[in-house]
UniProtKB/TrEMBL annotation:
Source superkingdom: Eukaryota
Residues in MAM domain copies: 2-148
Residue stretches in coiled coil: none
CDD domains per UniProt: MAM
Protein name: EGFL6 protein
Gene Ontology CC: membrane
Record gene name: Egfl6_1
Pfam families referenced in this protein's UniProt entry, alphabetically: MAM
Amino acid sequence: SVDCSFSRGVCDWKQDADDDFDWNPADRDRGDGYYMAVPGFVGHKNDMGRLKLLLTDLKPKSSYCLIFSYRLAGEKVGKLRVFLANKKSAPVWEENKGKDEKWRTGKIEIFQGAETTNSVTFESERGKGKTGEIGVDNVILISGLCPED
C-alpha cells in the first residue's frame, strides 16, 4: 500500500492552476499532522478548487483501491467529487452534504486497462453556506479490490 496522506505521505500532490481557489493545510484536532481543507467562506458559490494526486508506476491491467477520509461540515458547504484522469467527464465519487461533522471513509476502485490512470483529482465545489469546511485526509492506495467494511 502507498501512503498518500498529507503529513507523512510519499505521494505527489499538485494544486490545479486553472481553478478558483486552493486547498489549504488544516491542523488536526489531536495535533498529529494536518489534512487538506477548503473552508466554507472561501470563494463564491459554484467556485471550484482541485487538488490532484499524481500516480506513477501503476501497473496496466490491474486493480487498485483508493481509500480516503473526508468530511463535509457545515450547512450548504458544497460538494466533494473525485475524478480519475482517464474518465474526465463524470466523477467516480461524489458527496454533497454531511449528516454531521464526523469524518467518513470513501473508497474508489481503480481498474487499469491498457491505459493507466495517471492522476486522481479531489474537487471541492463551493456551496451557499459560509461556515464549515470540506476536508480530505488519510489518502491510501492499495493494490487489489477495495476491502468490504
